[in-house]
Design a protein that fits this description.
single chain, 665 residues, alpha+beta, 25% strand
Length: 665
């Protein structure tokens, strides 16, 4: 649920061109939004396919386009982001070729290269290169150049934009950049291939790959289950519950599943729609009378289905619950929505809001149990309407005493995978319907069977096919191939229609994928936060099931090389030396933020420490950024700059939202 993991701050600077684990970026523009069961269509802006020289791409408002002889300039209405698509001969070093492209658009371009990388060429391309350029913390923007080579030509994408607009308009950017391709590019297609019937040989290949990937990516423990043709055909528990311990992961070990909770929440909602206790088009404020956003018109417009469609324009506000959660109830979280408003229009683009998903889940639970607190009602409703009917035996919102729990882990500044306090992931409980469930691959494999059975499991119709299809109605696009339904992602993977949802907390990663036409799906649970292992495992599944182009090992190697380079750069940019951090001594004391709670800065053995009550982190200064510090302890190591302002306050510039800490006298 955090993230793409709450990605490292540096990764945010890589722009939409590397957003969502190289999924091409987060996109926008929509197909006309079909009518949901019992609902009304959302008015959205239509896409348009265009051609430029020997390329094609898809675009939707609100871009404006300026055509040049060998490139196009795309501008967004905010005026602080520009994207250039250019075609040049593929000659010279990557940095020289991209610099030439920049200077065609901006003759005085002088930014230094921060990182350069060569992702494995795939999708019909012969070569891919990417460069991230240095930007200061105060600029709060991304500057990135990328090109892909085909037949002696470099197809170049340049992006220079404010981080706030990248957050808001990532979908619009993704649609254009992801769909821009030469007319003669030949991409691998898998849609007409039958899925291989999996057996012992394939399971051995998958197990060997998973064990090797866990070792290379430093993932302590995992569970995996594969469903094919209505049954679980393979299940495996691997590694350790706690890195370095003798406690092995078993099939009964519980993992936090983060945003993979969301399909379970929309299943709860859909069952109540089936029972005619709720309607997808029912105004949320009719279900929760105290519900409100800062925008009155949006409050009146918002229906139950909107809480799970990622289509309302509500911005992501994860820092609000990551920083401050002890003693904050679900009711308190929904009250916080009264100070938040959409930043784009309904149906305009994909923006992901955990707080809004939580509101929808609590609304469904409150309908069933109006006398209980939201948290208790959700836990009881999920247990009785979802876990029970699906035959889950080990899934919980809150773990029971005696449960076998995997421990959360994250990567530190030195590139080591280390255990982090479970308390840090307790932040999810205030937004439980968005990401608080603990589960096992065995339990979730039953959910996959339920989806592949179009609502039927063990001969019983758990959910009507009408509501199965309502949840799978494609809505806003996530890029040129992916769309979002109701708590479910859909993607066109080389012609294969996939559905599911991944999840992240600070210390766990999950993935749940199913292919309805091919009647196959899988679940992968990891006790490592923000792990890209789920992405390379999906690639491996496509290779095994459909004999797809073999790219998984190359991708794994590239990801780890990129991680090492990024961490090395972070260590150069951040200093923990007490001698160089003396300026932080003047900040020692208590600080308060209206949205993020209380922070106490103190002197520690290593230098300086920030204590938020729920968790702590050591601090380090950002070289070249005057009076700016970041966290240096995992899982947020190298992230979230605090900038000292002229008025003495500390600013966190989180793009669309600015947070301020003020000293407490």
């Amino acid at each position: 649920m955090v993230g793409s993991r709450l990605r490292r701050w540096q990764d945010a600077k890589e722009s939409a061109l590397n957003y969502n684990n190289s999924m091409k970026i987060l996109l926008a523009a929509l197909l006309l939004f079909p009518t949901f069961a019992l609902g009304k269509p959302i008015a959205v802006q239509k896409e348009e396919e265009r051609k430029f020289l020997d390329t094609r791409y898809t675009i939707a408002p609100p871009w404006s386009i300026e055509d040049k002889s060998d490139h196009q300039v795309f501008t967004l209405p905010e005026g602080d982001l520009v994207m250039i698509q250019m075609i040049l001969p593929a000659v010279g070093k990557p940095e020289d070729l991209l610099l030439k492209a920049w200077k065609k658009h901006q003759p005085d371009f002088k930014r230094k290269v921060e990182l350069k990388t060569s992702p494995p060429a795939a999708g019909g391309w012969e070569e891919i290169q990417k460069i991230t350029y240095e930007v200061s913390v105060k600029e709060s923007r991304a500057v990135v150049g990328q090109y892909a080579v085909l037949k002696g030509k470099a197809y170049i994408t340049l992006l220079d934009g404010a981080y706030s607009t990248l957050q808001k308009r990532g979908a619009q950017i993704a649609l254009v950049a992801g769909s821009w391709k030469p007319l003669d590019l030949i991409e691998e297609k898998l849609g007409d291939r039958e899925a291989l019937k999996l057996g012992p040989k394939e399971f051995k290949v998958l197990e060997n790959f998973l064990q090797n990937a866990m070792r290379e990516m430093m993932v302590p423990g995992a569970q995996v289950a594969i469903v094919q043709d209505g049954q679980v055909v393979w299940e495996k528990a691997l590694g350790q519950q706690l890195r370095g311990s003798n406690d092995k992961v078993t099939p009964d070990t519980l993992f936090m599943i983060g945003s993979t909770t969301k399909p379970l929440t929309t299943l709860l909602q859909a069952r109540l729609v089936d029972q005619e206790k709720l309607g997808w088009d029912q105004p949320l404020r009719d279900i929760l009378p105290n519900f409100a956003l800062a925008d009155g018109a949006a409050t009146r417009q918002l229906e139950l289905r909107h809480t799970a469609c990622a289509c309302t324009g509500m911005p992501r506000r994860d820092l609000d619950f990551i920083f401050d959660y002890e003693g904050i109830t679900a009711e308190d979280r929904l009250t916080q929505l009264k100070s938040m408003a959409p930043t784009t229009g309904f149906g305009e683009t994909f923006q992901y809001s955990n707080l809004l998903v939580a509101a929808g889940g609590y609304a469904a639970a409150h309908t069933l149990y109006p006398k209980l607190t939201y948290d208790s009602a959700y836990e009881k409703a999920l247990r009785e309407e979802v876990f029970g009917p699906l035959g889950f035996t080990h899934s919980r919102v809150h773990p029971f005493a005696g449960d076998r729990l995997a421990s959360p882990h994250a990567i530190d500044m030195q590139g080591r995978m280390v255990a982090i306090p479970q308390r840090m992931d307790d932040m999810v409980y205030g937004v439980a319907p968005a990401g608080a469930v603990w589960s096992t691959a065995r339990d979730l494999s039953r959910y996959v069977m339920f989806e592949l059975g179009n609502g039927k499991l063990d001969g019983k119709q758990i959910l009507s096919e009408k509501q199965i299809l309502a949840r799978r109605t494609p809505g806003v696009k996530v890029d040129d191939t992916a769309k979002y339904g109701l708590g479910l992602f859909s993607d066109d993977v080389k012609g294969l229609e996939t559905w599911g949802h991944g999840g992240n907390t600070l210390g766990f990663t999950s993935d749940l994928v199913f292919l309805p036409k091919q009647q196959v799906g899988w679940v992968l649970l990891l006790n490592a936060g923000g792990s890209s292992l789920r992405n390379v495992f999906q690639q491996k599944m496509m290779e095994v099931l459909f004999k797809a182009e073999v790219t998984s090992q190359k991708s794994l190697t590239h990801i780890m090389k990129r991680l090492r380079e990024s961490l090395s750069k972070s260590r150069q940019q951040i200093t923990s030396s007490p001698a160089k951090n003396k300026w932080i001594k003047d900040l020692v004391g208590k600080w308060s933020s209206e949205n993020l709670g209380t922070m106490v800065i103190s002197v520690s053995k290593k230098g300086f420490l920030a204590d938020f009550g729920e968790w702590q982190s050591e601090l380090g200064s950002v070289n070249g950024a005057a009076e700016t510090f970041v966290f240096t302890s995992p899982p947020l190591a190298g992230s979230i700059p605090f900038q000292l302002q002229k008025d003495g306050s500390l600013l966190i510039d989180a793009g669309q939202t600015k947070y301020s800490f003020k000293r407490v006298p």
